């Protein structure tokens, strides 16, 4: 049954994900009259986040850092400092973003862990809306591949370049992964839940595989909107259609939980992409309207394409305008 969120003046919108896609939507969403909550994955074990996680055993901070900046009202100069990444000449600090180090320090200082630390940092950075880590403890992403083999760790899973059958998350201490009650309350009280855009298996599903998060998503009265990726990804979604993306989400959640899908149908100009710079992206996601409708989805297909620096991205403003229409807030 189609779930339609309440039509209120300032709709409550929860955006769930990670990676580079989440800030794109948040940057545009913060320009509207909305009550925003970002639920951010904590299963990243690559780059600076992974190194910090291994050395001082804190939740990986990279995705959280980017989301804080996307919602911050601080002057640009302060945000640039927070985002500054030391270059290779600095050796000890090489590759680390200042914001990652600050988040790691605060999470060590605060007995409440990363969740409470991020709430304090949100106030310091004057963020519009809430930023909630999906879990208060580090999570390990696990995958089973089509050949029956399994691997643990986001970076290892992506590097394997195998067809993923299913993913799940575990904690480093063996306890049941769980989101804080604030995350669950936000989902249950929302008018609209937005998933993506972002890597299907490594940015979106790690959040939904936390048991109480997945259950809340299935039980909420909010409309659940999936922003489908524009490109397929090497080692994750090779040859996927938009309907395949939705099918994977619904299968992992145990029911047809996706109500509405936003899909880009604008063709990417041939030879536009820099294949060396964006080597993880393969082909444009194939449009399968029949496959989407068979899963009970409302389908919104349009030109959501943004071409920039020989890369392919979602146009955040166009996507958010559509999200606003869905909440009945077309002119906000």
Automatic annotation (TrEMBL):
Cytoplasm recorded as keyword: yes
SUPFAM superfamilies, alphabetized: CofD-like
Localization terms from the record: Cytoplasm
First-listed, main subcellular location of the protein, grouped into a coarse class: cytoplasm
Domain of life: Bacteria
Family label: Belongs to the gluconeogenesis factor family.
Protein's recorded name: Putative gluconeogenesis factor
Organism encoding this protein: Ligilactobacillus ubinensis
């Amino acid at each position: 049954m189609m779930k339609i969120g309440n039509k209120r003046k300032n709709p409550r919108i929860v955006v769930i994900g990670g990676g580079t896609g989440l800030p794109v939507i948040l940057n545009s969403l913060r320009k509207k009259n909305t009550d925003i909550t970002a639920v951010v994955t904590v299963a990243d074990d690559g780059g600076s986040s992974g190194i910090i996680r291994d050395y001082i055993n804190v939740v990986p901070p990279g995705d959280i850092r980017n989301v804080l900046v996307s919602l911050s009202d601080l002057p640009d100069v302060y945000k640039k400092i927070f985002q500054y990444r030391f270059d290779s000449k600095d050796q000890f600090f090489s590759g680390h973003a200042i914001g990652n180090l600050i988040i790691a320090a605060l999470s060590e200082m605060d007995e409440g862990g990363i969740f409470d630390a991020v709430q304090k940092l949100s106030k310091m950075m004057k963020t519009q809306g809430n930023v909630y880590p999906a879990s208060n403890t580090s999570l390990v992403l696990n995958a089973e591949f089509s050949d029956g083999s399994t691997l643990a760790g986001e970076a290892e899973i992506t590097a394997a370049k195998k067809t993923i059958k299913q993913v799940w998350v575990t904690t480093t201490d063996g306890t049941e992964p769980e989101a804080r009650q604030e995350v669950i309350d936000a989902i249950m009280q929302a008018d609209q839940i937005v998933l993506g855009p972002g890597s299907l298996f490594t940015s979106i599903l790690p959040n939904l595989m936390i048991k109480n998060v997945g259950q809340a998503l299935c039980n909420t009265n909010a409309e659940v909107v999936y922003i489908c990726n524009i490109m397929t990804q090497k080692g994750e979604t090779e040859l996927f259609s938009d309907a395949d993306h939705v099918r994977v989400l619904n299968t992992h959640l145990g029911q047809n939980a996706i109500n509405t899908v936003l899909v880009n149908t604008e063709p990417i100009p041939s030879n536009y992409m820099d294949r060396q710079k964006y080597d993880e992206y393969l082909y444009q996601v194939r449009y399968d309207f029949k496959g989407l409708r068979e899963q009970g989805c409302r389908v919104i297909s349009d030109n959501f394409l943004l071409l920039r620096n020989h890369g392919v991205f979602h146009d955040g403003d166009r996507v958010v305008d559509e999200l606003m229409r869905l909440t009945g807030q077309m002119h906000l």
